[in-house]
Amino acid sequence: MAPDKVYGFRFKGEVQQRIAGLHTIGKESRTSHTYSWDGLKRQEQDRIVFQYTLNGQGRIRIKDNVYTLTKNEAFLINIPSDHCYYLPSDSDHWDFIFITLYGEEAARHYHTITHKHGHIFTMPIDTRPIRHIFKIIEIIETIGIKDAFEASGYAYSFLMEYLHYLEFKQQQQSERPASINKAVAFIKAQYAKDISLDNIVKVSGLSKYHFTRLFTRTLHKTPVQYLTKVRIEQALQLLRHTDQSIDEIAKTVGYASHNYFSKVFKATLGETPTQYRQNKFVMPVDRLFID
Questions:
Q1: Which parts of the chain have pLDDT scores under 50?
Q2: Apex CA 184: angle with CA 210 and CA 251, to 5°?
Q3: pLDDT tens for residues 249-267?
Q4: What's the pLDDT at 156?
Q5: What sign has the CA pseudo-torsion 33, 37, 43, 44?
Q6: What is the pLDDT of residue 206?
Q7: Which of 54, 87, 208, 255 gives 261 a disulfide partner, CB atoms 3.0 to 4.6 angstroms apart?
Q8: Do 57 and 180 meet the contact criterion of CB atoms below 8 Å apart?
Q9: What is the spatial distance between Cα 49 and Cα 43, in angstroms, rounded to a whole number?
């Protein structure tokens, strides 16, 4: 993605005002201490700003409260309102991405979010709302956004990604024990290798008995069942999008034996890898999700 670019949109049509509209979006790096936006002095009206810190440090005052924003921290604010965000004197840079929205549905969701969660948020850069902003910018820089309906779709989908994260993903991560998060991350990173239950248990730092019970209670699958799910989902992608042989795919997703891979695959989906790849009587999909 190209650095330091801001894109604005002024499409005609009621769809953006009734639902959600895309006003501006971009990525910036601010180093001048003249950078300051006062929410009561801006010309824009009825706008919603989400700004996410990539690096450095910024600051925002919301009424009588002042918040310092560092990496992975964001704010959600509406214009006009009593706020001011700026590059503080004790910071030499503030790198961020942002998206500015408007529309009746956008405003309704804004009030729902801020009433329940406040204005300040912390989220990893790989969460879906942040990835969605990067995706929109990439689309703008490659093929562009052509009309109000397309712009409204991207604006509304960002709100849905944000709400989904706040209502489900954030809650799940906070409720899931750290030992389980470590195990899940290990499985997703190492599924292609010859890993065993003992390897997964070791990462968790718990006893095998306690870990297995906790993992199963949390994810409704045993650790081995979860590993199998991850491997088969990856195999489905390779079967659909590559010409690799079944033996090559088996090894790529962590199975040393072609025959055992086929046995596990059939037990999961009811057909062999070869049958799945050759089946012409089922509508093809780019990705198949399994439970």
A1: 1-2, 280, 283
A2: 115
A3: 999 999 999 999 999 999 9
A4: 95
A5: positive
A6: 93
A7: 255
A8: no
A9: 14
CB-CB contact of 69 with 87 (8 Å): no
Report residue 218: phi and psi, to 5°.
Answer: -80, -45
Q: Which pLDDT does position 1 carry in this prediction?
A: 44
Beta-carbon contacts of residue 285 (< 8 Å; ≥ 6 apart)? 240
- In the sheet with 83-86, reading across from the earlier edge strand, the strands are 36-38, 83-86, 58-62, 65-69
CATH class of 5-174: mainly beta
Query: What's residue 240's pLDDT?
Result: 83
Give, for 27, the enclosing helix (H) or strand (E).
strand 21-30
What's the fold here for domain 178-278? Arc Repressor Mutant, subunit A (1.10.10)
Q: What is the domain partition of the chain in residue ranges?
A: 5-174, 178-278
* Cβ atoms of residues 232 and 222 within 8 Å: no
**How crowded is residue 54: how many other Cβ atoms within 10 Å of its Cβ?**
15
